[in-house]
Amino acid sequence: MLRETDGGMSYFLLIAIPVLAFCLPVMASEFEVMSMSKFDVNGQNFGSRQSSISLEARSLYSWNTSRHCVLTRLINLSVNDFDKIRQNAGGLIIMLPSDIMKLDAEAKEHIAVLEQAMLTHTGAVPIYFAPYNINLEKIIDEITYTTIKASSQNQTSVAQLIMSVSANGYHATVGGTNKVANKNSKIPIIYGELLSNQLHLKANDNAVDAHKLPVILITATLKTFGVFNDYPVNADVTVLLALIEMFSKLHSTTNMAPNYRLIFMISDTGLLLNFQGSKKWLEIDDNSALQNVEFVLCLDTIIESLSSNPDMDMYMHVSKPPKEKTSISHFFKLLKSTAEKYNITVEGVHKKINLADSKLAWEHERFSIKRYPSFTLSSLKSHRSPSRTTIFKDDETRILTHTLIASRIVAEALASFMYKMEPTTSIFDGQFAIKEENVLPYFGIKSVLHNNDLKDAFEKYLNNVKIIYDKADSRDPDFMFYNENDVKLNVYRVKPAIFDIFLTILIGFYLLTVFFGIQYFPLFYDKVSRLTRDDTSVQTNGHYPERLKFK
Amino acid sequence: MTLYHFGNCVALLMPYYFTYKYSGLSEYGAFWKCIQAGGIYIFTQLCKMLVLATFFYSDTSSTGNGEFNFFAEIFRCSVDIADLLGFALILSRIPGKGHSKLITAGLGWATAEVILSRGIMLWVGARGTEFSWIYILKCLESNVMLVQHISTATLIWLFTRHDLNKALKPLVSVLLAVTVFKGVWLEGLLHILTIGPWLTIAVKALVAAVIGFCTLHIYSGLAQQIGI
């Protein structure tokens, strides 16, 4: 009976126990990582091309071959280091700071510059970003510390041997297959028109056909990624939506007939994708909006998301200096005087379009090439500023206040222009005031297609809302995105081979001790027996010591 | 870490082989007996599992956090009394003479325990990429467990003997109780002291040595008395 159960049960156990053992937590340290964005524009490749890492982790100061994966903090990495690693190392894992806000101005600028350098180059090695993690920080500290210790001590060979035995190595692995090009890469573009109050127009005798009125086109780009796949701050879109909301309110209540049509356009592109969205939009055949354009107002980085400067500036970028009495110069004056009310100076910046460049500097250049009067409003003076493509954001309250101010300035200047009023009159007061609660929800917009948020917002206020897509050409794509998988970084603690040999020697000694212990156990047993012997009758049978060998 | 490291860990289990080889078990062809003892170990563990699963509140989640739950440990150790019954079963079922009988029981039991509870962990873990001292520590602990199990087998044997000196009977019972409830008092103590893993092994080895010495002392007295 016993034997039967015994056999059957042990089989069961042999299955059950391995299953239990597999459930034991494996000691590897696992971290979330985000891979560097990978995309192609105009045949140029950006981002890291490879994705899997299985290499020894080294610090920024100790790596030297392509068999090392560099593990470092973002703030410690310099552009120079990055260039070297990009070409020679085996991989790069960058830990982001825990709180960007706490960094000083210099560090913020450094991050932005580094980010720009990353975005303008192809990385031949896999590059990953890890969010701040206390365990990862410990590992980085440890690899940095051991190398410093090793280099500072030029001691005897024995000391070095002990060092190499006691040293902890780390092995970093990131799984994942290479990113696959998404053949269906497309850029959505949404646009809609704010019609002027039809009833009111008809009541007026001098009404012209609403569709014949000159057009003011307001555009913004929606950044959907940065150096890694995350959502950057899109203050431009927020300002644009605030404008839509305000002018829609104004049009439905005011008894002044606007002399312009307002068309709003948002595309999922931006500087990184060379404003492909605007290009596509300009190519639409029956684009009635382009018949009679007064001017095109582009918003680009109207608020810096990562800035050390608490004040706000505004610049108007044009491709050629506006002549007197053109609508742009008129608007510029209005903008200037409006901004003065908020103690903000507006400067005009003139930069010629360089057609030889592979990438355009500003979105308005797309329109200027087609000879539409256009300009860009931005908080940045130079088109090379790294803030334009940053994914990081610091102080959200600052961003919010600046967004409110920017929305007010643009809205008031635009209203003054459209209704031909003095800029000193305040239209956007009282019920038309742009408040925080108007603006705040718009920061949540992540993409044109995300949850239909943008579509719903457009359809609420605008007419003729359409979404079109710029699809990548199958043979010669202008741009290409890559599918991204969720990947994990595993950092394993490893020991050098010499350590194992060292351990073997130690175990050898131990075993030798145990061996002799067992060999001499009979002697020990004899001693114990002698202790027990209360009576002196020593029985030394001939076989007794032999039997003792069992023990 | 590597297969080599796994080899190191397995080498640490060599004392099991030494015990088998140099205590004379090999000369008696006690291999099959050891396997039988291992089989009884498996059977006992299964019974324990059934009892634990049926009557006790599952607290695997709380023990997983490294907390020490005193009452849960007492409950668990009280089920460990089944281990003693298992030993008694081995001693009564498996024929053998004198010292070899006890060593067979202890060695078979300990080997089955090592293979079943450590084997997979070593195979998966020690060969894995991550280096950890835990595998070396577990293997060293297995050596301590070998001594422990052989003394437990001896204590059970002593307990079942009627010709044991009456004065020693309470001492044997106390030693058995100490062995069974080691999970409570020793682990609890180590938990309170919060000493490092290496010292923990050392303390366990010391405790096993003390129990082992007491057992050997009593055993040698009885062995001489009955002349084995």
Automatic annotation (TrEMBL), chain A:
Keyword vocabulary terms for this entry: Endoplasmic reticulum, Glycoprotein, Membrane, Signal, Transmembrane, Transmembrane helix
Keyword Isomerase in record: no
Gene Ontology biological-process annotations: regulation of signal transduction
Cellular component terms per the entry's GO annotation: endoplasmic reticulum membrane
Organism domain of life: Eukaryota
Signal peptide range in chain numbering: 1-28
Protein topology in the membrane: Single-pass membrane protein
Transmembrane segments: 501-523
Location within or outside the cell: Endoplasmic reticulum membrane
Sequence similarity: Belongs to the nicastrin family.
Name of the protein: Nicalin
Organism the protein comes from: Drosophila pseudoobscura pseudoobscura
From TrEMBL, chain B:
InterPro entries: TMEM147
Localization: Cell membrane; Endoplasmic reticulum membrane
Membrane topology: Multi-pass membrane protein
UniProt KW keywords: Cell membrane, Endoplasmic reticulum, Membrane, Transmembrane, Transmembrane helix
Annotated transmembrane regions: 40-58, 171-192, 198-219
GO cellular component: endoplasmic reticulum membrane; plasma membrane
Family to which the UniProt record says this protein belongs: Belongs to the TMEM147 family.
The name this protein goes by in its record: BOS complex subunit TMEM147
Organism listed in the record: Drosophila persimilis
